[in-house]
Amino acid sequence: MNKPETMTRPLPRAEPQSLGFAADRLPRIAAALQDEVKRNALPGAVLMIARRGKLAYSETFGYLDPAAKTAMPADALFSIASMTKPLVTVGALMLCEEGRMAVNQPVRHYLPQLAGMRVNPPLCDGASGAPTEAAVREMTIEDLMRHTAGLSYGRGEKAIYKRYPASSDAASSRWNGNEFLAQLATLPLHYQPGSNWEYSLGLDVLGLAVEAVAGVPLSRYLDERLFKPLGMRDTVFTVPADQVSRYAKALPRDPVSGEPQTLRDGTTPHKFDCGGGCAISTAADYLRFAQMLLNRGELDGVRVLSRKTVEFMTSDHLGPEVDLSMLNDYPNIRGYGFGLSVAVRRSAGRGGMPSTAGEFHWAGSTGTYFWVDPAEELVTVFMAHAPGAIRYYHRQLLHALVLQALG
């Protein structure tokens, strides 16, 4: 039986040149990110890069608190937003490996509150009281993981969007888990399950399904089954009171629009552990998680998932029957497919940035980002509180900076 770890164990370090990085090109990374800080486009950041299982690069930039000019520490805490989603997916897949959950099972098998959800017909605005139609098939656990359940976030112009919570934070700040499910049950799905990809509250629903099966809150389940075994000491769902001084702050104004910007206060508990975006972590912790995925489910003798399950998770699950129009709306993932909570690169071309077929990644609306490139044996984790539209530029910038440094 694997013995859980209680302290973070860093990946072993090695000289970047021994891992295939060009000594004369690595400084470009720091120069570009420091320039982002100088031009007030980035408050501060932590960047960690591992290759072949060893830490090649670990640097901090800018400020933990831009107003106070507090230097960014390597162990800064960040609200990782949607980078919570892969954590929850791994937690659910662990239950699948134990025979307690199945990816192709209808969601109502675990959450009967969502049985019989109807669908907004094509071309219908979806206003309250508008006609609905029966689902051709039920939404499944896989649909939740790959954003094809017919759920969404409330971020569009049609009336149906205005009936949905705008974010995972918005949902978990307003309702407890049962209230959230009861609210969803009154709404129509946007599309027939399996027909369209649309970024959604699906992972919040998945987190509640995990709770229903595991019989404990999501945060406790993940802490016991994932975070502690992997030595992810600082990954939590609420910043502990004695660690608030490590919690990074954002710029007061969006560097693109100039409008005031805020982040949800990660020191305040949510009404439920939202699987779509409520976790807090550090670059070092998340690097261990990502390295486990690159290692196909194992790290430092601790096996979290089987090799075949990780291959399944990080493969493209979107066939020609799925409309990918909204996936292609994201500037850095045009041409990608989608696995279970991660975007999956289909070819070296397209995508808006250089990469490799089989690379997978995801990011958070707060400005956090990670990717894993199995062909290059490469893991990159970027932590920042830069929640504006500039985060899409930063993701493309990071790919260019890191990959140009490979020899």
Task: Report what the structure shows.
27% of the residues lie in helices and 13% in strands. The chain is α+β, with helices and mostly antiparallel strands and 407 residues long. It has a domain at 16-78 and 248-271 and 283-404: Beta-lactamase (3-Layer(aba) Sandwich). It has an 8-stranded antiparallel beta sheet with strand order 3-2-1-12-11-10-9-8, sandwiched between helices. Strands 4-5 form a two-stranded antiparallel sheet. Strands 6-7 form a two-stranded antiparallel ribbon. A hairpin with a 2-residue loop joins strand 1 and strand 2 (54-65).
List the helices and strands and how they pair.
Blueprint: H1 27-38, E1 44-51, E2 54-65, E3 70-71, E4 78-79, H2 84-97, H3 141-146, H4 159-162, H5 168-174, H6 177-185, H7 202-214, H8 218-227, E5 280-281, H9 283-294, E6 298-299, E7 302-303, H10 307-313, E8 336-338, E9 343-345, E10 360-363, E11 369-373, E12 378-384, H11 390-404
Antiparallel strand pairs: 1-2, 1-12, 2-3, 4-5, 6-7, 8-9, 9-10, 10-11, 11-12
Helix pairs in contact: 2-7, 2-8
The total beta strand count reads: 12
Helix percent reads 25-40%
Residue stretches low in confidence (pLDDT < 50, at least 5 long) are 1-7
Give a short account of the largest sheet. Answer: 8 strands, antiparallel
Q: Ends: how far apart?
A: 40 Å
Shape call: globular
Provide mean pLDDT, rounded: 95
What's the CATH topology label of the domain at 16-78 and 248-271 and 283-404? Answer: Beta-lactamase
Order of helix and strand elements from N to C terminus = HEEEEHHHHHHHEHEEHEEEEEH
Give the C-level CATH assignment of the domain at 16-78 and 248-271 and 283-404.
Answer: Alpha Beta
Tell me the number of helical segments per DSSP (H or I, 4 or more residues long): 11
Instruction: Name the strands of the widest sheet in spatial order.
Output: 3-2-1-12-11-10-9-8
Q: Tell me what the CATH architecture of the domain at 16-78 and 248-271 and 283-404 is.
A: 3-Layer(aba) Sandwich
Q: Give me the Rg, rounded.
A: 20 Å
Q: Determine the CATH superfamily of the domain at 16-78 and 248-271 and 283-404.
A: DD-peptidase/beta-lactamase superfamily
